[in-house]
């Protein structure tokens, strides 16, 4: 009997391990804009949900330390920590740890900018100041409400990731003492930004080609570096429209340029002739490279693709006529839960299903669509080996169970007289 119970238990455990019941993971569908925060005793803070997700209930793991009302407003009661859990109508949950500490809270904090408008890939810096004057400025922290739109580091440097809106919050030792900067990120095409190639030759005032010189192309948004070859030639890739300063250094270790000048980058590739005349760099423009033909159409390399969850595909384009210039292509997914596309036209599968990725030229004149089918990951040889081994183990246990069960039934039938008892073998010695 014990053997039967053990067999049943072993089979149940194996089946549970191989085919576990589906469980709802915390934070799968809803999430707080932050995972943790700190408050001083007596302070309150309004918790926020990403994407303004609707929440039906808020609970605190220790209401004697932190209380929370039906709208997600927490209040610090006493020192310690408590986990605040938000639950939506579907049972999805998210959690935030609130730590309450002793001490005196700063009076306030200010930020240098209340709003910032950026284009995808651009960056901006903000500064914060703790009040009153003379307060410890090292206790400032920065947070982003949506890092998929805009990221911020510990020094207040903001990086625009993708189109959308986010709030950058500066805090002074407590979540209740904060100031906000609203960040709006626009797609690259909205400001007519093109990526071009800037090349040229560097000369001395005597007409000699300057080899192995370090060049730095910069403005308030971008810093690019290049080194001249033996013929004095240089090139900068992926330069966007704008005003730039070109600095010349003898080597990468120098911090003071030997010569510098400025020029403006347009929407087409450029060729420059740069002449070093003491500290002044004369930059002569050659006519910007124009496309020999006007763009009539853009086609996708593939109009439909199938990728696995977690894998990516780099979309490429063809222009018509072939000597036309390919403008910036902006991709957008109609279902980012299935597939997403970045500014480099890389498509990534998120979950099983289908999505349409639309690519539009920067002037919004031409639009093309690619159907993306995302499938589950193909099992590797290693995973198949694991499945076969698990199946063999289950088969062995099931076989052992049936042998044991058959033996049990036979013994019971002998006891009831249905089958004759086995004859005992006589020993050799009396």
What is this structure's SSE topology?
Elements: H1 2-18, E1 36-40, E2 44-46, E3 57-60, E4 66-68, E5 73-76, E6 80-87, E7 93-101, E8 108-111, E9 115-119, E10 123-125, E11 128-131, E12 140-144, E13 150-152, E14 157-160, E15 164-172, E16 178-186, E17 195-204, E18 214-218, E19 223-227, E20 233-240, E21 242-249, E22 259-265, E23 270-277, E24 280-285, E25 297-300, E26 304-308, E27 312-314, E28 317-320, E29 329-333, E30 339-341, E31 346-349, E32 353-361, E33 367-375, H2 381-415
Parallel strand pairs: 1-7, 9-16, 17-23, 26-33
Antiparallel strand pairs: 2-5, 3-6, 4-5, 6-7, 8-11, 10-14, 12-15, 13-14, 15-16, 17-20, 18-19, 18-21, 21-22, 23-24, 25-28, 27-31, 29-32, 30-31, 32-33
Helix pairs in contact: 1-2
How is this structure best described in words?
This protein is mainly beta. Among the domains are: 108-186, Immunoglobulin-like (Sandwich), CATH 2.60.40.1080; 195-285, Sandwich (Immunoglobulin-like); 297-375, Immunoglobulin-like, CATH 2.60.40.1080. It has 2 helices and 33 strands. The chain has helices at 2-18, 381-415; strands spanning 36-40, 44-46, 57-60, 66-68, 73-76, 80-87, 93-101, 108-111, 115-119, 123-125, 128-131, 140-144, 150-152, 157-160, 164-172, 178-186, 195-204, 214-218, 223-227, 233-240, 242-249, 259-265, 270-277, 280-285, 297-300, 304-308, 312-314, 317-320, 329-333, 339-341, 346-349, 353-361, 367-375. The strands form 10 sheets. It has a 4-stranded mixed sheet with strand order 1-7-6-3, with no helix packed on it. It has a 4-stranded mixed sheet with strand order 9-16-15-12, with no helix packed on it. A 4-stranded mixed sheet has the order 20-17-23-24, with no helix packed on it. It starts with a helix and ends in a 15-residue tail after the last helix. The model is unreliable at 19-28 and 288-292 (pLDDT under 50).
């Amino acid at each position: 009997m014990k053997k039967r119970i053990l067999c049943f238990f072993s089979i149940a455990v194996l089946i549970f391990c191989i085919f576990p019941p589906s469980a709802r993971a915390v934070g799968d569908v809803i999430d707080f804009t932050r995972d943790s925060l700190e408050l001083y005793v007596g302070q309150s803070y309004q918790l926020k949900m990403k994407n303004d997700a609707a929440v039906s209930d808020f609970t605190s793991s220790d209401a004697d330390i932190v209380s929370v009302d039906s709208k997600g407003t927490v209040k610090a009661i006493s020192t310690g920590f408590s986990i605040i859990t938000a639950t939506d109508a579907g049972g999805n949950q998210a959690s935030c740890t609130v730590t309450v500490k002793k001490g005196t809270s700063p009076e306030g904090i200010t930020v240098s900018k209340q709003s910032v408008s950026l284009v995808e890939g651009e960056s901006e810096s903000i500064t914060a100041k703790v009040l009153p004057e003379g307060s410890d400025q090292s206790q400032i922290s920065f947070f982003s409400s949506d890092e998929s739109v805009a990221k911020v580091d510990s020094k207040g440097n903001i990086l625009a990731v993708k189109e959308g809106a986010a709030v950058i919050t500066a805090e002074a030792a407590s979540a209740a003492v904060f100031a906000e900067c609203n960040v709006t990120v626009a797609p690259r095409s909205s400001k007519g930004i093109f990526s071009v190639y800037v090349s040229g030759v560097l000369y001395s005032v005597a007409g000699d080609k300057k080899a192995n010189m370090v060049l730095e192309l910069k403005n308030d948004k971008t810093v690019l570096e290049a080194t001249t070859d033996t013929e004095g030639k240089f090139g900068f890739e992926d330069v966007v429209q704008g005003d730039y300063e070109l600095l010349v250094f003898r080597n990468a270790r120098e911090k003071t340029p030997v010569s510098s000048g400025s020029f403006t980058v347009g929407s087409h590739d450029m060729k420059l002739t740069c002449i070093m005349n003491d500290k002044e760099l004369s930059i002569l423009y050659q006519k910007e490279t124009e496309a020999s033909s006007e763009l009539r159409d853009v086609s996708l390399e593939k109009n439909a693709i199938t990728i696995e969850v977690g894998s990516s595909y780099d979309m490429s384009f063809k222009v018509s006529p072939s000597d036309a210039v390919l403008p910036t292509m902006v991709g957008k997914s109609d279902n980012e839960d299935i597939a997403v596309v970045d500014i480099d036209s890389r498509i990534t599968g998120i979950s099983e299903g289908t999505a349409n990725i639309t690519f539009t030229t920067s002037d919004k004149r031409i639009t093309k669509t690619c159907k993306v089918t995302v499938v589950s990951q193909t099992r590797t040889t290693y995973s198949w080996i694991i499945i076969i081994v698990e199946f063999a183990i289950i088969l062995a246990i099931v076989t052992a169970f049936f042998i044991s069960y058959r033996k049990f039934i036979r013994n019971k039938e002998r006891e009831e007289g249905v089958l004759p008892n086995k004859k005992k073998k006589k020993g050799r010695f009396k």
